[in-house]
Each structure stands twice: as C-alpha cells, then as structure tokens.
C-alpha cells in the first residue's frame, strides 16, 4: 500500500469519528427514561400557566415527580432521611501519646470516627484532660445527629468550647 492510500484511509477514519461520534449516544436510555425525558421536553416547550411560578421551584418539582409516579406506577425517589437522628451513638475516650486523650465515636457499636489527636491542629498530641476530649466528642456527636458529614471541628469551635487552654 502506498503512503498516499494510508494517509487517505487515516484521514477518512478521522472524519468518520469526528462526524459520526456526536450523533451516536454514548449510553442507551431505557424506554421509560426516554419517555420521561420527552415528557419533560414537551412541558418545557409549553408556556408556564402562571408567570410568577418558577419551573425549578421545589414545589413544582415535587408535583412533577408525583405525576410521573402516578403514570409509571413506580414510586418516585424520596429524599434520604437522616440516618443518625435516632442512631445509637456512643463516645469512648481513648489514651493518646504523651499522656493525652482522644476519642472514638461509635454508631450502633461500629467505629465511625477515631480521633487520637486534637482536630484542626497540627501534631499528634491529644487533649490534656478526659473532660476536654469528652466535650469535643459531644460536639461532634451533635453534628452527626444533624447529619453534618463530615462533622468538622474548626479552631474557632475549639476556642468557643475552651478546650485549647
């Protein structure tokens, strides 16, 4: 094969990829997903019934999900509930280096957080007293119960709790 034929073949292959690839979808949709997308497109094309209603408002989105649930017979996805609101959360004060203290936080008896040092500060040393470690651990448990994940502790938080003295 001559170099001209090879270059022509490569050029044609490149053009095919350039023009055909955007036309072919990367992932095939199920019939139900395609119908749902088509329904959404049709609704977007229709003028809003009320001019002051925002199409993306949470109330309208919930209404759309309920309508689709009724049509398909399947349950619409629900927002996840806080798994830690009523969980059994325990605190265990643990020894750390240089006679300091850290804490473990267990959810239903399983370790969730192992914190042998003071969070937010450099170094490996823990709190000077068990009481200080307990105070910060309780603060972290409060954040977990509110589903604030990860339950970060800032230097400002530590200062407000008075555990850095």
Structure description:
This protein is of the alpha+beta class. 43% of the residues lie in helices and 12% in strands. It has a three-stranded antiparallel beta sheet, with helices on one face. The protein is elongated.
Key descriptive features of the protein:
43% helix, 3-stranded antiparallel sheet, alpha+beta, 165 residues, 3 strands
Q: Tell me about the largest β-sheet.
A: 3 strands, antiparallel
Q: If you compute it from the alpha carbons, what radius of gyration comes out, rounded to the nearest whole angstrom? A: 29 Å
> Roughly how much helix do the residues carry, as a percent range?
40-55%
Strand content: 5-15%
Would you report the number of β strands? 3
Which sequence of SSEs, written as H and E, runs from N to C? HHHEEEHH
Mean pLDDT: 75
Q: Judging from the principal axes of the Cα atoms, what is the shape? A: elongated
């Amino acid at each position: 094969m001559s170099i001209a034929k090879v270059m022509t073949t490569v050029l044609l292959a490149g053009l095919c990829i350039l023009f055909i690839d955007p036309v072919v979808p990367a992932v095939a949709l199920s019939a139900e997903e395609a119908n749902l997308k088509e329904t959404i497109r049709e609704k977007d094309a229709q003028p809003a019934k009320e001019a002051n209603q925002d199409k993306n408002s949470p109330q309208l989105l919930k209404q759309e999900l309920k309508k689709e649930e009724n049509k398909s017979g399947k349950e619409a996805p629900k927002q996840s509930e806080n798994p830690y609101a009523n969980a059994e959360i325990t605190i265990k004060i643990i020894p750390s280096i240089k006679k300091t203290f850290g804490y473990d936080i267990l959810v239903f008896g399983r370790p969730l957080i192992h914190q042998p040092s003071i969070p937010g500060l450099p170094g490996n040393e823990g709190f000077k007293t068990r009481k200080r470690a307990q105070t910060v651990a309780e603060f972290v448990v409060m954040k977990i119960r509110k589903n604030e994940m990860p339950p970060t502790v800032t230097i400002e938080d530590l200062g407000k709790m008075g555990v850095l003295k």
